From TrEMBL:
Family: Belongs to the APS kinase family.
Protein name: Adenylyl-sulfate kinase
Group of enzyme by EC: transferase
Keyword annotations from UniProtKB, A to Z: ATP-binding, Kinase, Nucleotide-binding, Phosphoprotein, Transferase
């Protein structure tokens, strides 16, 4: 396929919407920015072409170019994250033309009340499909994120199965605020009827959930006199853990971004406040306008290091994944990070020939053709670190294992 020259970089929400669209889950493709022209190549933040958007009489429609990059975690399990059309076809074969499919939407952690209501909700259905809407972006503070929602969705599936009902589950890429309707999307997945499980809650449960966040404060004020309670709350707000900078370095295509994204998602899921500073994303914002000469690349890495050290100073975890080819700029990042907290250097040592074979963005081919000057690994050197805390070769280690190795260090 010849790709259009015009490109549009998708946000996390737009990536979720595109994935849902390509899988047959919706016809809607509402993008935030102004498209330069149609047709246009839709890319992720790493500039990997994913689809071509064309205008049709029925509205914009996208044609897939490359598969989406997958990360680690239960919400990325291929057995769960299936296209809507595949799920629908499978269900129809199971229940036949006269059967009815109930979709149970799990978009919040279910309480005992919802689980106790499952037998009554599902008794008349031929099959029950548990749908778990998840998002690429980080959840709001205190909210259950995508990995946790996928896990509780599987608990709901198993609880329904224990009643004797025929059941299955599917993770749904979800983009709030894009005009999506749960029942309409569920119908694309093969459902005849849709129930949002959290809607089963009575007013008493809703009130109890609303007060969860204030119970600690209420107990403090019950135990201490007012002035003392204020000091206890102030101390609790000021407490912070030691921050950490996890710094990935490696060639383009080595897999460092994939591992970094998976690590950040898992740490976020565990309640550890995590900020991801991926190389290509930073280039679009923090380092916009910088070139790719040695001085510009070193400045880009130092900017990433400075922001990462601020995150660590305030007790958070910063996960950074630039190429960072030069030892001198990595040393400056280490110095800034260790002044703020802890520094962990991970060298993703995937061989050049493997990185070049992957070449999702076509950069190595352009560098070999002389179209990209000073390209790391081809026409510009990569100085392998001698001070790495961990060395990972993603051609021999899975993303899940790589994440587990980094977490052991933390």
């Amino acid at each position: 396929m010849n790709l259009p020259e015009a490109t549009y970089v998708l946000s996390d929400d737009e990536l979720d919407l595109l994935e849902l669209h390509l899988g047959g889950g919706t016809d809607r493709l509402q993008l935030d920015g102004d498209l330069p022209q149609v047709p246009v190549t839709l890319t992720d933040v790493e500039n990997t072409p994913l689809a071509v958007l064309r205008g049709t009489d029925a509205g914009p429609s996208a044609e897939a170019v490359k598969p989406f990059a997958r990360a680690a975690g239960p919400h990325w399990d291929p057995a769960l994250r299936r296209p809507a059309r595949d799920v629908s076809h499978g269900l129809r074969r199971e229940v036949g033309p006269e059967g009815t499919v109930l979709a149970l939407v799990v978009d919040e952690a279910p309480t005992r009340q919802e689980l106790d209501a499952l037998p009554g909700l599902t008794s008349s259905a031929s099959a029950v499909l548990v749908l778990v809407p998840v998002q690429r972006r980080s959840p709001a503070p205190g909210a259950v994120g995508a990995p946790g929602l996928a896990r509780v969705g599987m608990l709901v599936r198993d609880a329904v199965g224990a009643t004797g009902a025929r059941t299955s589950a599917s993770v749904v890429p979800w983009a709030p605020g894009r005009g999506l309707d749960l029942a309409t999307v569920a119908a694309r997945y093969g459902a005849d009827r849709t129930v949002r499980l959290s809607d089963v809650r009575d007013e008493g449960t809703v009130r109890r959930l609303a007060t969860l966040g204030t119970r600690w404060s209420d107990e403090v004020h019950a135990l201490y006199p007012p002035d003392v309670a204020a000091e206890v709350e102030h101390a609790a707000r000021g407490a912070r853990q030691e921050g950490t900078v996890v710094f990935f370095t490696g060639l383009s295509g080595s897999g460092k971004s994939t591992v970094a994204q998976a690590l950040a998602a898992e740490l976020d899921d565990e309640g550890r406040h995590t900020t991801l500073l991926d190389g290509d994303a930073v280039r679009q914002h923090l380092s916009k306008g910088l070139g790719f000469d040695k001085e510009s690349r070193e400045l880009n890495v130092e900017r990433i290091g400075y922001v990462a050290s601020l995150v660590a100073y305030h007790g958070g975890i910063a996960v950074a994944a630039p190429i960072a080819p030069f030892a001198s700029s990595r040393a400056k990042v280490r110095e800034m990070a260790e002044a703020a907290g802890r520094f962990v250097l991970v060298h993703v040592s995937t061989p050049l020939e493997v990185c070049e074979a992957r070449d999702r963005k076509g950069l190595y081919a352009k560098a070999r053709a002389g179209e990209i000057p000073e390209f790391t690994g081809i026409s510009s050197p990569y100085e392998e670190p001698t001070d790495a805390d961990l060395v990972i070769d993603t051609s021999t280690v899975s993303v899940e294992d790589a994440v587990a190795q980094v977490k052991e260090l933390l």
